[in-house]
Specification:
2 copies of one chain form a homodimer. The first copy, chain A, contains 17 helices and 29 strands.
C-alpha cells in the first residue's frame, strides 16, 4: 500500500494506468475515472457483462505490488447468475460488481475494450479500432411528473447526459412516435441506438427498445460497382463480418459500361430515374438476402456505407449523370455525404438507418478509389506504390507519403469476362486458370469450384455438377497470355490460323481465327473459344490500364515503381505473371506485386466501423492530386503504344522458363498492327 | 476634409457610423466595412436595388462637414436603367454604384436596412427586427475545371463563403438534383434560398434559381387550433403579411374538444392516424388557398411556423396523444422542433420547406401559449399581468418580470359558438353584439358584416344578402350577460319562464325556457334562441376560465391583478364589460383590460421573422412555472364556486348605469343551483 495514500492502489493492464481508490469502489468506476478503455453498455448495472476483467493475484514485481486473494470483493449473485446463464471464463469478474478492497492489478481483455481492433490487415499490420457512428446505450429514464412537465424525449436526453455524458440528443418523428409506449413497456428502462457521424454536432436516436436490448445492431459496407454490387454485413458492436454477398448491378440492362449508361440517361428522358430505381431495388434485395444469410432481422441494420464510382454515385442519389459524360466531367457534389437511408429508398433497413458515402476524388475517380486509399494508405507509404483497382473502369493511385496521384482508365468490362465471346462472371464452372503447351498447343485449365486441372484423372467427374460454362476474367487474361507465349498470337494481337499454328484447335471464323479451348458440344454443352475479338477486347482494356499508369508515372517523372498492389476481385484472382506478360501493368519485380483483395470493400468496412477513419479519408482525398486521362494527349499516345502484347518471352528472370519458342508474327486479312490502325490487305 | 486623413470622411445616418475611405470607394463597400446595416441581395452587382441610400448635401454643423454637390460620383447608366424600369425615389442613389468623391453624409432609409422593423406592437412599442432563418443570396459560382475537380456544390459553397461569408453549406438530394442544370442555365450565376435555424450548426440550401431571382420567398405563421386553423402568409424578405386565411380544423368530426379527440384515438385503433391525415390535408389546402389569395406560387413558401396546443401538436406530428389524456399528461417531447415540411406531408409548400414549432410549456399548455408569451412578454412586465388566450381550451399566463406562471383550463368550445343551440363561427350573418332592454326585455343586435343595429332603419336591407344565421362566440357571451342584467336569468343561471319574465319571448321547451332572439321562420329562416342549455354551457366555460386564473393567483398569493390581456379572436371581439358581468375573468379596472388580438398568431409571425426570437422563447419557456389544474383540488373548488353569474349589477362604477332592476331568482324543474349540483323538485 502506498505510504502517501491510504486508499488501495489499482493498476490496469495493458494500459498501465493506475490510481488510488477508496475501499468499495467498483472496478468499472475506477476504470472510468482513469480513462481505461473498459466497455459497458448497461452503465454498470450488471446486465450487459461487457465489463469483464481478469484480476491478477500474487506478487507483481514490475508494479511493486503484491495482490492478496481478497483484493476484490467476493463473487456475487449477479456474477453467478450471469455465469450460469451465459457462461464466463474462469477467473473473470464483472467490473461493475467486483469492488476494490486492497491493492490490485486488473487486466482488461481485448474483448472488453470498447475500441476493439477489428480490421487487421496482415500485410501492413494496420489496426482499425472500433469507433462506429452508431452505438447502443442502456439508460434509465426518470418518470414524468406533473410538477416538472418536460417531455419524455427531454427526460431521455437528460438521462443520457447524466449516465453516459452524451449531450444534445434529438429524435426524428419515427422514433418520437414509439418513444412513449417503449418507455412504458420497459418501465422507464430502455436501450437506444444513438448515431453521431464524424461531422455531426448533435446525437440522433435511431431506434429504441424496451429494457436491455443486446441482440445486435448491424451495418452494411457496400461496394457498388457498375457490374456487381458486393456487401459485407458487419456487427456494429465489434466489427465482425457476419455475411458477405453480392448481386449483379441490374443497371447492366441499360448499358454495360459507365458511358453507355450515361448515354442512356442522355438519350432517354427519365432514363436516369429508371436506373436509380433499378439499383435501389437491387440494394433492398441484397440487404434482405444478406440478412437472411446471417439470420438477422434487416431492420436491425442501422447504417450503410457506400463506395462507388461517380456515375454509380450520382445514379444512387438520383442525380442525372449527364455532366459526367462530357468534359469537364463536373460532379454535382464531391464531398463525403451523410444522409438517411430513406432518402435512397432503402426500405429493407431500419426506418431511421443512416448512410455514409465516401468522398469522390474526381469526375472519373470515385469513392471506391477513396476507399482503396483508406485501406491501402498510399499516402503513408515510404516507397513508390502503384495501386490498381480494376472494376468495369480501372482506378489508379500512384504515390508515396509525399504525394499521391489518382486517375481513371476506361478499361471496359473485358477484365470481368464481359464482352468476351465465352466470357462469364467468376462462378462455379468458369475457367479461371489456363496453360497451353508451347509445343503441342494443347490447353489444360482449372474451373472455379474444382482444384483439379482438366487433364487430371477425375476432373470430368468432379466438374459434372457444374459443367464447364465459360471463361471468367482471370481465365481470359491467362488464356490470352498463354496463347501469346505458345505462339498462337503475335505481338500485334493477331490469332494464328490452323495452318500457321499447326493445330486443329485453330478454327477459322470468317477472316479471323479462334482457339478452341474446350468442346462440350457432343454432350449438348458449349464450345468455349478464344476469338480474335476477345483478344482485341483484352488488348484495348490492358492498353487503357497501362496508359493510365504511365500517365501518372510521367506526372511524377518516374520510369519505375517500387511495388504494385492489385485491388479488387480482379487483383485477388489474377496471375501476376500473366498480367505482366500481357503488359497490363508497368514492370516491377514479381515479389513486389501483391494482391490487396477487395480493398474498396475493406475501405467501406473501415469507414463503417470508425468515425475517425471517415474524417481521415475526407482529409486525404482533398490532398490527392487528380490527373484527368480524357484531356491528356499523352494518354492517347501511351494507349496506342501499349496496344501490342510485348512479352512473348518473359519480362523477368522468374518468368524466363515459361516461353521457349521464338516469337511469331502473323499477317492476315483485317489484322490490326501494333499501331492500332487497320492494315490494308 | 480631415486634417489627419486625406481620404474623404463618410458619415452614415441614422447609425452615426463614420470612417475615411479612398476616393472611388462604393458607398456599399464603405457601409459594409463600417458595419452599417445596408441591405444587398446581389452582393453589389447593381441588380437587386436593395442598397438604396439618400446622400445629404450642404452644411452639416452637427457632423462638422460640408457636403459638396459632387461628393458622390455621377448618376450612372445602371441607376438610370433601374429607375426607368422599376422606379426610384428622387434623390436616392444605389449604394453599389455611387462612389465616394469627397466628404459626404449618407442616410440609409428604413427599407434599405437588412434588419427592418416589421412587427411593431402599438401598445408596447415593441420592435421585432428581421432575422429570418431563410434568406435569398445571389452568388456567382466558379466554373468547373478538370484540373480542380471539386463538385458543383463545393464550388457553390466556396462562392458563398467568399462572397457572403457563409460557411458550411450543404444541400439535400432534391436541390442536388437540380443544382447542375440550374448553374448552367444561369451561366454560373444563381440565387439560392439558404436556411439556418437558430440551433443549426450548418447552412442548408433550400432552393436554387438561375440568375438573379427576386420574386420573393414566403413563410406561413400558423395558429393550429382545435376548432380553427389560422394562417398568415408573410414575405420572408421584409416580414410583410400578404394574406391571412383560416379553415375549420377537420378533426372536429372526430371530437369537438381536445379530450374527445384523445378519446377517439384511445378507442379507435389507428384513430390518431386518421386525425393526423385530416389536419395535414387541411393544412395543404390552407396553404393553397392563402397562396391563391396572395397570387403567389405555393412552392415559394420556404418555411412554416406552428403554434398549437399539445394535443394538436402531437397529432400534427403523428404522435398518438393517448398520454395527454391521463395523468401525468406526459408529452412525447416538449422542446421546440425544427424539421422538414415533407416529414409532415405538407406537399403544397416548397419540397425543401422547413417547419419550426415553438416549444410546449406543459402537457396542457401548448406552443400557442408560448407564442402568446413571445408576443406579450409577461416575463418583461413591471406590473402583474394576466393573459388569457381562449380557444377551445383557455391557456393562461400570470406574472411579471420576476416570475411567470402558466396553466390551462378546459373551457370547451362554447366561447367559440360551438355546443350552443344557435351557435356558429364568426362569419357574416352571425349575431356578434346584443343588447336587451331591461324594461321591455326586447333585444337589439348587430350581425357581422353590418354596422347597423337590428332596430335601425335599413337593417333588413343591409343584411338581406347574408341573412341572420346564428350567434357567434362574442354574441352568446353578450346575450347571456344581457339576459342576466335584464332579469331573464338568475344568479344560478336559471332562465325565467314567460310568466316570470313577463314577455312572450320566453319560450318553454320541456322543463326549461329559452329566449327568442330573432325569428325568421316566416321567411324560411331560423329561429335564433338562447336556451337553458346554452346558459349552462357558457357557465361551465366561464367557471373553468375563472378557476384557472384564481388558481394562478393563489400560487402567487395575490387577490388582484394589475391588468388583464385578452388574446385570441375571442379577446379581440369580446365586450370586456359583458365578460366581467359574467365573471369570466377576475375583476380589474376596465381601463386595464386590453385586447391583444391574435397574440398566438403574432408570436408565430415573430418566430417566422426572427431566429433571435426563437432562441429567446425557448429560454423563456424553460423558465415559466407550470401549474397543472387537473390535479389541483383548489381548481375544483374555484370551479364550483365560480358557477354562478355574480353581477346582475355592474361590478365597477363604469358599468353602474347598465343595470337598474333588482336581482331575480328563479326556481324551476331541473334547475341547477349555484353549487353546480342538480336540485330535486
Amino acid at each position: 500500500m502506498n505510504a502517501l495514500n491510504k486508499d488501495p492502489l489499482v493498476i490496469f493492464t495493458p494500459s498501465g494506468k493506475r490510481g488510488h481508490f477508496p475501499v468499495g469502489t467498483p472496478v468499472l468506476t475506477a476504470a472510468r475515472q482513469l480513462g481505461v478503455d473498459l466497455d459497458s453498455v448497461c452503465g454498470g448495472r450488471g446486465i450487459c457483462s461487457k465489463c469483464q476483467v481478469t484480476p491478477g493475484y500474487g506478487e507483481f514485481a514490475k508494479h511493486g505490488v503484491t495482490v492478496e486473494a481478497d483484493a476484490l470483493s467476493g463473487w456475487n449473485s449477479v456474477e453467478e447468475r450471469y455465469k450460469s446463464k451465459r457462461g464466463m471464463i474462469d477467473g473473470r469478474r464483472l467490473g461493475c460488481q467486483a469492488t476494490i478492497q486492497s491493492d490490485v492489478v486488473i487486466d482488461v481483455p481485448p474483448e472488453s475494450q470498447v475500441h476493439k481492433q477489428v480490421v487487421r490487415k496482415a500485410a501492413t499490420a494496420r489496426d482499425i479500432i472500433m469507433d462506429p457512428a452508431t452505438r447502443l446505450y442502456y439508460v434509465e429514464v426518470a418518470e414524468p411528473d406533473m410538477h416538472e412537465p418536460s417531455g419524455d424525449l427531454e427526460r431521455l436526453g437528460k438521462a443520457l447526459k447524466e449516465q453516459w455524458d452524451i449531450k444534445e440528443v434529438y429524435a426524428d418523428l419515427d422514433v418520437l412516435r414509439k418513444l412513449q409506449p417503449t418507455l412504458r413497456k420497459g418501465e422507464w428502462k430502455v436501450t437506444v441506438a444513438l448515431h453521431r457521424g464524424n461531422r455531426d454536432a448533435r446525437t440522433r436516436v435511431l431506434d429504441i427498445w424496451p429494457g436491455f436490448y443486446d441482440e445486435g445492431i448491424y451495418g452494411l459496407a457496400i461496394d457498388l460497382g457498375s457490374t456487381t454490387i458486393a456487401a459485407h454485413l458487419c456487427d456494429l458492436r465489434d466489427g465482425r463480418v457476419l455475411a458477405s454477398s453480392g448481386v449483379m448491378n441490374p443497371q447492366i440492362r441499360f448499358g454495360e459500361d459507365l458511358m453507355s449508361r450515361v448515354s442512356y440517361a442522355m438519350m432517354n428522358p427519365g432514363g436516369d430515374r429508371e436506373m436509380t430505381a433499378a439499383v435501389r431495388t437491387a440494394l433492398n434485395g441484397l440487404a434482405q438476402t444478406i440478412s437472411t444469410e446471417a439470420d438477422i432481422d434487416p431492420t436491425r441494420i442501422m447504417e450503410a456505407v457506400f463506395v462507388c464510382n461517380p456515375v454509380m454515385h450520382h445514379l444512387l442519389l438520383g442525380i442525372d449523370p449527364v455532366e459526367l459524360g462530357q468534359a469537364p466531367f463536373a460532379l454535382a457534389t464531391s464531398d463525403a455525404m451523410s444522409l438517411d437511408a430513406a432518402e435512397l429508398e432503402l426500405k429493407t433497413l431500419n426506418a431511421n438507418a443512416r448512410v455514409y458515402i465516401l468522398p469522390l476524388i474526381a469526375g472519373h475517380v470515385g469513392a471506391d478509389c477513396a476507399a482503396v486509399a483508406l485501406s491501402e494508405e498510399p499516402n503513408k507509404s515510404d516507397d513508390m506504390v502503384l495501386i490498381v483497382d480494376v472494376g468495369t473502369n480501372a482506378e489508379l493511385l500512384l504515390g508515396d507519403k509525399h504525394k499521391v496521384l489518382a486517375c481513371s482508365s476506361p478499361t471496359g468490362p473485358a477484365f470481368e469476362g464481359a464482352q468476351i465471346s465465352s466470357g462469364q462472371r467468376a462462378a462455379p464452372g468458369a475457367i479461371e486458370r489456363v496453360e497451353i503447351d508451347a509445343v503441342t498447343k494443347e490447353p489444360r485449365f482449372k474451373v472455379i469450384g474444382c482444384d483439379l486441372w482438366s487433364t487430371d484423372p477425375g476432373f470430368d467427374a468432379a466438374t459434372a455438377s457444374t459443367g464447364i460454362t465459360g471463361i471468367c476474367g482471370s481465365g481470359i487474361i491467362e488464356a490470352v497470355a498463354e496463347m501469346r507465349m505458345a505462339g498462337l498470337v503475335d505481338a500485334s494481337g493477331l490469332v494464328a490460323s490452323a495452318e500457321q499454328a499447326g493445330t486443329p484447335r485453330m478454327i477459322a471464323e470468317g477472316r479471323t481465327n479462334s482457339y478452341l479451348m474446350h468442346d462440350a458440344s457432343a454432350s449438348g454443352g458449349p464450345r468455349i473459344m478464344v476469338t480474335q475479338g476477345d483478344i482485341r477486347a483484352i488488348q484495348l482494356a490492358k492498353s487503357a490500364l497501362y496508359a493510365g499508369a504511365r500517365l501518372l508515372m510521367d506526372e511524377l517523372n518516374i520510369d519505375t515503381v517500387d511495388r504494385v498492389v492489385l485491388a479488387g476481385a480482379f487483383g485477388a484472382h489474377i496471375s501476376t505473371k500473366h498480367a505482366m506478360v500481357l503488359g497490363m501493368i508497368p514492370d516491377a519485380p514479381l515479389a513486389k506485386v501483391s494482391s490487396a483483395g477487395n480493398a474498396a470493400g475493406t475501405g467501406a468496412r473501415i469507414a463503417l466501423c470508425s468515425n475517425a477513419a471517415r474524417t481521415e479519408i475526407e482529409r486525404v482525398v482533398r490532398e490527392i492530386h487528380k490527373v484527368e486521362t480524357a484531356i491528356e494527349p499523352r494518354f492517347q499516345e501511351h494507349f496506342v503504344a501499349a496496344n501490342a502484347i510485348p512479352h512473348a518471352t518473359a519480362p523477368f528472370p522468374e518468368l524466363a522458363t515459361i516461353v521457349t519458342l521464338p516469337d511469331v508474327s502473323f499477317n492476315a486479312a483485317g489484322a490490326v498492327g501494333a499501331d492500332g490502325r487497320r492494315r490494308r490487305r
